[in-house]
Amino acid sequence: MKIEVYMEDVGRRARAASRILTSTTTREKNTALSATADAILDNRSTLQEANEKDLAAGRDKGLDDALLDRLALTEARTQAMADGLREIAALPDPVGEITDLTYRPSGIQVGYMRVPLGVIGIIYESRPNVTADAAGLCLKSGNATILRGGSEAIHSNQAIRDCIHVGLGVAGIPGDVVQVINTTDRAAVGELLRMDRYVDILIPRGGKSLIERVSNESTIPVIKHLDGICHVYIDDWAEPEKAIEVADNAKTQRFGTCNTMETLLVSSSITPDVLPQLADRYRQAGVELRGCPETCAYLPDAIPATEEDWATEYLAPILSIRVVDDLDAAIDHIETYGSHHTDTIITEDMGRARRFLAEVDSSSVMVNASTRFADGFEYGLGAEIGISTDKLHARGPVGLEGLTSRKFIVLGDGHIRR
Asked: Residue 383 above 80 pLDDT?
């Protein structure tokens, strides 16, 4: 079958399935999620066999150890997939929620109802657990989904899909609600990017090149973030011990996440109190320090930072440090080099904190807290599909509510407009 014909069929079936989901109850969705979790655990050996095929093919292709690690379905990751689906089942169902009903002078009531987006296409790389996570979130939020995983995980993704279809069958929900593209043909991605007749939203998850391609070529709205260039600014009025703890955690708690601090900004007046102690902690954690001339004067072992460093998401034990004159200079730096992801101020002056909250244009802006808190679980959203740095329609961590929209509803009793 030609790839164009195959993808057209996938889109048509997804659109039809999305209409069925509009009348699917919360209980049915939760039953499917729980049954899928059971199927994943019951079929662990099958999943391992499929995953080993992918790992063997990856070794033959020369994939590096980091990629092979992301590809591996360990016992712990398999259990985490099942646990994650049960956690999604336990979350409140946003679909059908009615809010803000008010009476108008005409006597009608006007409000909002939360509704699914419809059909969500998700393009992702390496990690096969995304198949279960994304399918679970889309199902609970009432959306049909088309999943296109990386070719390196084709066998794992298909095996997980089979478990999902078992769960859907237990609940009496059609399997077309979750479709996993069954070809490694790269042309499938190009077709998916142009399927605006059937697909309402695309979500890319992976490297910068993938996200840039999706953003540039898609005829469908995209929920995404390109970079996580996150900042911590230590203000003149920061409490030094607090500042050291937060700035240490923001970088060293995990190096390879999009909400890890990549640039530390320190007000010049407090630099002698915090920077040497922070540098000791970073060295102990194996972090390479790159700094402006003032930073290098305090830290002779720091590497002079280049212009490129300020605009780089390292995802590694590397940190850029800049000494700035004041809050205005810090905000200017973030506006110039930031990625609108997550930025934090450390200060005891609430006036300055409020300015930072108001003037920094990022999806998450924090006061006296580590950037590492910027994810769905920590925000109380439960599981997330990703983080958006766009302003429409979702911004920040995208959980169940971010996979829905609102429509106006009007309640009357024979009312007519006069």
From this structure: no
